[in-house]
Amino acid sequence: MPVPSGYAAQQAGNQPTCFTKIRMGLMMGAMIGGATGILLGGFMGFRMGLRGRELLLQTGKTVAQSGGSFGVFMGVAQGLRC
């Protein structure tokens, strides 16, 4: 069976480094955790009866906490896979 055109052997220099993989995992985790924090923090703030500035502050804290913790988790997981 012939190989389709456009498929070439990958050179070793094209692979991402371990630091790049860790950084990408950290960024993906921070984005996913931040999006989850927006949803959960906003919902929690509305349930507590917060409006305006208080709601934004509470949601921001939740976004930072969930984004940071999930980002670190994903970064460590990518580091273990290197």
TrEMBL record:
Record carries keyword Transmembrane: yes
Subcellular localization: Membrane
Primary residence: membrane
GO CC term, one of those recorded: TIM23 mitochondrial import inner membrane translocase complex
tRNA processing in keyword set: no
Biological processes, Gene Ontology terms: protein import into mitochondrial matrix; protein insertion into mitochondrial inner membrane
Parts of the chain that traverse the membrane: 26-46
Coiled coil (residue ranges): none
SMART domains, A to Z: Romo1
Similarity field: Belongs to the MGR2 family.
Function: Induces production of reactive oxygen species (ROS) which are necessary for cell proliferation. May play a role in inducing oxidative DNA damage and replicative senescence. May play a role in the coordination of mitochondrial morphology and cell proliferation. Has antibacterial activity against a variety of bacteria including S.aureus, P.aeruginosa and M.tuberculosis. Acts by inducing bacterial membrane breakage.
Protein name according to UniProt: Reactive oxygen species modulator 1
